[in-house]
Design a protein that fits this description.
3 helices, 40% helix
Amino acid sequence: MYCIDPGHSYELLMLDGISTGCLLTFVKRVGDKFPGNTTSYPGTTMQEVLRAVIDRAEYVNNQIPCKETQEVIRLCTEAVFQLEKRAAIRHGREIDFTTNEAVHGDLCTTCGHIHCADHS
């Protein structure tokens, strides 16, 4: 992993293919809620990346099940829930979703969070 823009943009190692890496870009916003950011650009969220990791881990676990992969799924699922819980608290919303909804539920297309009434 090579950090391009701390906290926001990374080049990840690419295996079995071209020599250049895979770019991972997190959304970058400016304003009072984003201290230190002076530029902005579109990107994804940690939750969305973890949802992809969960899906990948479930796929791999179906190929060759093991307790370590199952634990990765559990921990990543809990991480998504905690990140969505943090977002709900920061935006003054109730935590009215389950862990399963945090991972597999419908997301707001504006902010990327579960059960967002602000942009619906």
